[in-house]
Amino acid sequence: MFIDLDTLAGPDRYKLLTAAIVPRPIAWIVSRDAQGVTNVAPFSFFNLMSGDPPLICVGIGMRDGAPKDTAHNIAERSEFTVNLVSARLAGRMNVTAVDFPAGVDESVEAGVVLAPSERVGVPRVMQSPVAFECRVHELLRIDGRSLVVADVVAMHVQDELVADREHLYLDGPKMDLLARLHNPGWYCRPQPAFQMPQLSLAQWEAMKRSGDADRYLEKPYR
Question: Which positions fall inside the Flavin reductase like domain (predicted)?
Fold first, then answer.
């Protein structure tokens, strides 16, 4: 099936792309406007773009033809926090996605506990297993939408999720993080993991010489 996205309406493009590009991690963003009013909202157009320098990217859409509060706040203050969502926080995250009228504090509605950050003037979600303090590196406007590239200047990890402090290993399965699937409102949790080390050129060439290359290519990983 060939699909020419240029011929489709926006909602149809969204439906297809979000069904195919999965799972997507959830950025539970805390932001503040110039007057200090706090906003909490989740976004799934989000991912890590670089480890060194540490950069994340978030795509923020529009509402009623205008930038969402999160995009407006980030543009004003150039800082925000990204908080990851564990399964036990799913309901609270979902409530913060409600289209509340202006002036309603989503953190109060959802019972979200905010804690001060160390490097930025925007709080983080204390219940979140991992939180990132971010400063805007570059802000792009594309057809009214905001594409935020940000430096991660600090992170917070709950102590029980640190598997090895010396080697900076985190306990991924124990985080029990949620990720977004297709609409309407489908999410997933981590499945049993498998390890597949990166091959060197020498290893791959050795497999081809020994006749093991085809077997390696067909090996199922589940």
Answer: 19-176
